[in-house]
Amino acid sequence: MRRLLILLSVFALVASACGGGDDSTDTAAGEDTGTESESGSAPEEEPEAEAEPDEAEATDDETASSEPEEAPADDNALGALRVPQDYATIQEAVDAAAPGDLVLIDEGTYNESVVVETDNVVIRGVDRQTVVLDGMHSEDMANGIIVFGNGVAVENLTVQNYFSNGVFFTGDYDSDFILRGYRVSYVNALNNRVYGIYAFNAEYGLIDNTYAAGHTDSGYYVGQCQPCSAVLSNNLSEYNTLAYSGTNAGGELYIVNNEFRMNRVGVTPNTLNSEELAPQRSATFAGNWIHSNGNPETSKGGDIWELAYGVGMVLPGANNNLVTRNLIENNRNGGVAVSFLPDGDTIWLAENNTITDNVLRGNGIDVVMVDQGGQASLGNCFGGNTFDTSRPADIDTVLPCDGAEGDLSDMIGIDFFSPPGDEANVPYADVASPAAGDQPSMPDALSAPASPADVLPEFDGFDLDAIAVPSGT
Amino acid sequence: MRARLLLAFAALTTLAVSSCADDDPLDAFVEVEPEIVFETEELDVDIDALAEAAEDPEPEGPPPIDIPDDALDFTGLAQIDLDIQDNAFTQRVVVVSAGTEITWTNQGRNEHNVRPAIEGAFEPISTLDLAEKGDSASLRFDAPGDFPYFCSLHGTATNGQTGRVIVVP
Lengths: 473, 169
Hints:
The structure holds 2 protein chains of 2 kinds. By secondary structure, chain A is mainly β.
């Protein structure tokens, strides 16, 4: 069966490359300490390093041969553009990079807002926890890393305290440029004011093994793409206003095997007029553990999301989505809810969503179909779910995927769920990120070759058969 | 080469013509000769400089503004309204008359701002003024010129969420 996702193939390649290499950092001191990268894009002259990042030592050939004891521990076998050894700032290294280059960032705190305009560059930290891009909440540093180039990958670092977003991939709407190819792996996004990891007007993406906490909007946001041809897998989102938001985003979009917990609201594919490509349609949510959402120790976002406070997964104005084999438990107000969404003068209806084979327990109400103005099911259906409570009652029977709908008289309204009140609102900069320090670094970050996110046009689906309901442990 | 060379050429020509005075076909040329001498005496200028000037004339005033085909023409209006979406300026390039007041309204869900791509070209509109859907802020453009701008949250001076105001007299 050839339903192998190329994106995951890329991930597998990275993982295999990471897993097999020896740690070469202590083997080549004095052998070859030249700083010129294999692509030839290293600087001709030694730049002056800033004081803050450590180990900003001279590393040119002459220095290395005359003073081998001060040479860096590795021989730069990767041909990386190293920060701060070769370039004082990440931006300088990125500007010097050619497609296919690796920008390797050493331990330290970097108060930069990095703009990437070159295709197929890989930006990697040597350690996820100790390589920190910090925006200090300054409006002059809106985004930690904003990417306009195709095929760029960001790996193994922390991006925090930015005025707007942590890592942001964006096409250029004005010029009809849709960004193609992006990847974020082993990244912590903490307490950025809007989104943690953000893909807009972008296709062919992979976000995996990342962590997002403390955002006033969503930890993960995929917006305005159709088809998105993207995968979010093995990520952890907590203490955000929304765990995941996908406005007008769908088409070969797979949100699978993630954990979304302790957010104000959990997962929400949605339709809004604020972006192009409405309505949202055709995303798949499978194998996720969605639990314990309805956390008042978060930052309050827009009022519209307060309507869904404490709901694990809400599909407002969403269409043609598949929600299957998720474990959705212990969410304060609701497990999964299908609803319309009022947006100014527009009422976006939710239609043709399929909710099957999920396990729901311990939620305020496990399964909810909101009354969409006296409408019938509008193609939304439920089947094979394990749950205790629903509105309308016995929802798998009343709104079946393989039969006629029953009595819908006890559907509830969109204002059924009770928001926590304005007092439950923590400033985003003060929101906790309790699991940030537990997140593992990328294996063999010092030896894995650069793997840009450029091997993507053959995206042809995802093997849903391999996904099971998570155990919840 | 200076005009004096032409004077020498004219003198030589006069000598040649006088030696062939009986040759009828050259009569017309003889008649032209005084005109050549007269004109070259009048033009005591650097010919090379003139040639260069002809190829690259000195511009008078600011260079003309290249107005793209998709620019929206709002000239003649004292005030116009523009919208901002996530993440784009809806009317990306507009042409207005000097003195026009432009009001931007955030129709998106995200915050936005309006910053000049050329620092100092005009007073920026801060994120605080365009923080929420429905927020509006205005600028008046009195001087003719080209004013590219961008939202610093979703773009740079040259990439992403960018716009342009072209002000004509």
